[in-house]
Amino acid sequence: MKHSNWTTPADIREQLAKRWRKGELLRATHQPDTLFPLRLPLKKPGPGELVEQFDAARNWINHWQTAANQDLELEWQTVNNRQLGRNSLPVAVVLPTLEAALRQIGQLNAARQYQSLTAEISQQFPELAGWCQQKPLAILAQQHEWQTLLAILAWMVVNPRPGIYIRQLEIPGVHTKFIERNRGLLSELLDRVLPEHAIDASVSGVRHFEQRYGFLRRPVRLRLRFLDKAQDISGLRDIEIPVDQFQTLSLPVDTVYIVENDVTALAFPDTPSSIVIFGQGYGIGKQLANASWLKEKNVMYWGDIDTHGFRILNQLRDAIPNSRSLLMDAATLRGHQHLWGIEPSPHIGDLPNLTEHEQAVYQMLSTLEPGKNLRLEQEQISFAALQER
Q: Which pLDDT score is estimated for 1?
C-alpha cells in the first residue's frame, strides 16, 4: 500500500504538469540548459517507517526501480538503520533533458509546435519574440489561428489608424467576429508592432479597442421625448439619435428632464416647452458634457434616492453645473417610508457637487436606520408626487 507521504511517479508527472501549465517548460525550449538536468527530490520513508512498514517501503523502492529509465534517472542514498542495517533509498529523480521531461507528460509534440510557431511569428515580427517567450501557452491556445492573426497585424502595420469600421476590413480569411472574439490578444500584439503614433494611449481594454487603434466606433445613442406636442418633429415625439448629433442641437425648449427609469420617461406627463432624456446611469454626464446649449436650459435630474443616484447627480454637475435634482429631497424620502429598500453596494465617499440639502439626504441614507443603507427607487415614487412637483 502506498504511504500518503511517499512520492510516486504519478506525483512527479503532476509536478512536471504544473510546470507545463505555468509555461515554464515551454520557456525552457529557448534555453534548456538553464533548467536541465532537472532534479526533483522525493519524499521517502523515514527510519521509523522503514521498520514499521518494511514491506510497503520495499514495494515503493521496487516501484521506482521499475520506473527508472534513460528519461528518468534515480539518485540513491545509503542509510544506516539499527534494526535493518544498510539500505539504499531513491532520494531524487533527475530528468536529464527537456525532451525527457516532456515525454513524461506527453507534451513533446506540443512543445515542437510551439517552437515552430514562435519561429514563424518572430521571423515576420521580430518585436514579438519576447512576447512569445512570455506567453507560450497563448501561442499554443491559438495555434490554428496564427495565420489569421498575423494577416491582421501585417494589414494594420501598413494601414495604421484606418478610420473605418471593423466590418469594412477586407483581409482574406478574416471575419469581423474573429476580431471581436480576439480583441484582448490582438491588443497585446498591436501594442508591440504598431508605432506609438498609431495607438491612442488614453484608452485601453477590449471595450475601447476601436478607439485605441483608430477604427470607427458604433455611435453612442441618446433617447429623448418631446413633452410638448407643439414642438415635435413631423409628428415624432420619441426619438433616438447619436450623442454627437445631440450635442450640436439647439432645441427651442426651456426645460430638460433627465430620468433613469425608461418607463418613467415614457409616462412622463406633457409639459410645455420641455423634453425628457432617458438616462444612462454614470454615462450620462460624459454624454452631455459637450452639449453646451444645455447650460442655457433648466436641467432637472431625477434618479433613485440612493448613494449611486446622488453620485450620478454629482458627476452630471461636472458637465452641467446648473442642473438641479427632482424628487430627491428629504420630504420625498420620508413620504415613501413604507417603500424603503436596502442598497446592497452603497457608494462611500464625498460628493462635493451636491447642494447642502442634497448632502443632508445623502447622509440620511445611512443614518435614518443605523447599520442600514436605505434607498428609494425612482419607480417606487408615486406619479402624483411627480405631477404635483
A: 43
Q: Taking the model in full, what pTM does it have?
A: 0.68
The model's pLDDT over 264-308, given as tens digits with 9 standing for 90+, comes to: 999 899 999 999 999 888 888 888 999 999 999 999 999 999 999
Average pLDDT across the chain, whole number: 91
Whole-angstrom CA distances from 139 to 1, 133, 182, 301 are 42, 9, 13, 50
Strand partners, 278: 259
Cell for 165?
Answer: 469600421
CA–CA gap between residue 91 and residue 145 (Å, rounded):
44
Distance CA 360, CA 254 (A): 29
Cell numbers found for residue 295: 447650460
Phi, psi values for residue 223, rounded to 5°? -105, 140
Residue 20: strand, helix, or coil: helix
Distance in angstroms (rounded) separating the CA atoms of residues 164 and 237: 33
Side-chain half-sphere CA neighbours of 268 within 13 A: 28
CB atoms within 10 A of CB 24: 14
53, three cell numbers: 512498514
CB 357 within 8 A of CB 329: yes
Residue 198 has a CB neighbour count (10 Å cut-off) of: 17
User: What are the beta bridge partners of residue 81?
Assistant: 85
Q: What is the pLDDT of residues 16-74, one digit of tens each?
A: 999 999 999 999 999 999 999 999 999 988 777 777 788 888 889 898 988 888 889 99
220: DSSP letter: P
Q: Which of 304, 301, 315, 303 is nearest to 351 (CA)?
A: 315
For 284, other C-beta atoms within 10 Å of its C-beta total 23
Which amino acid, 309? G
**Look-up: residue for cell 415624432?**
236
